[in-house]
Write a structure and sequence with these properties.
The chain has helices at residues 13-22, 35-46, 65-72, 76-79, 112-119, 123-141, 157-166, and strands at residues 5-8, 30-33, 55-56, 62-63, 86-97, 100-111, 172-175, 178-181. It has 185 residues and is an alpha+beta fold. It has a domain at 77-185.
């Protein structure tokens, strides 16, 4: 990311389930945003426009500031035709393997224009939808059949990663200077 700023967000369930499943206390979720986005967000926050608590206007109307902001924002799907650039979603895993420190980044990249041409939406929707479709396909075929409620990280990852690659969202792995697409099993 060029001049992007990262901020932490703690509302994702997988942060907690991964920590429990792997027995590691330090699992974090980060998102990167450009400086302009951060500035707009900061201004809205400082003005109290991100609040979900009702306020009364000078005219006596009760409004929820966040709902007002949502009402004046454009429909996200209307922005998709003009989106350009790429998303990058991944996991940076740091630890020790065979007594040696190791750091691996496993990720995927979606191009906004390519996603729009394929499905009529931008890359962020693509990266949210394609994994859900892959999971549904694995459940429908019985390859993921745990017969109980489970978090996705509790299921065999390789069939999922392979299917993602086949249906348009290949996984890449970077370790040190080496960066490659995950070969299909």
């Amino acid at each position: 990311m060029s001049s992007a700023t990262s901020i932490s967000h703690r509302g994702h369930d997988e942060v907690h389930s991964l920590s429990q499943l792997l027995g590691v206390p330090n699992v974090r979720f980060w998102m990167g945003f450009g400086d302009h986005y951060i500035n707009v967000f900061t201004v809205l926050k400082n003005l109290g426009l991100l609040s979900e608590q009702p306020v009364r206007t000078a005219e006596g109307l009760e409004v929820v500031p966040l709902k007002v902001v949502k009402a004046v924002l454009p429909d996200p799907s209307s922005l998709a035709p003009d989106y350009s650039g790429k998303t990058c979603i991944g996991d940076l895993v740091k630890g020790v393997k065979d007594g040696k420190p190791r750091e691996v980044f496993i990720y995927n990249v979606a191009d906004h224009k390519e996603a729009y041409e394929e499905v009529g939406s931008q890359g962020i929707s693509y990266t949210a939808g394609v994994p859900a479709v892959a999971a549904a396909m694995l459940i429908a075929t019985g390859e993921w059949d745990v017969k109980k409620m489970a978090n996705v990280e509790e299921l065999p990852p390789r069939p999922f990663l392979d299917l993602l690659g086949r249906i348009g969202l290949p996984t890449r792995i970077r370790e040190g200077e080496h960066d490659m697409e995950l070969p299909l099993a």
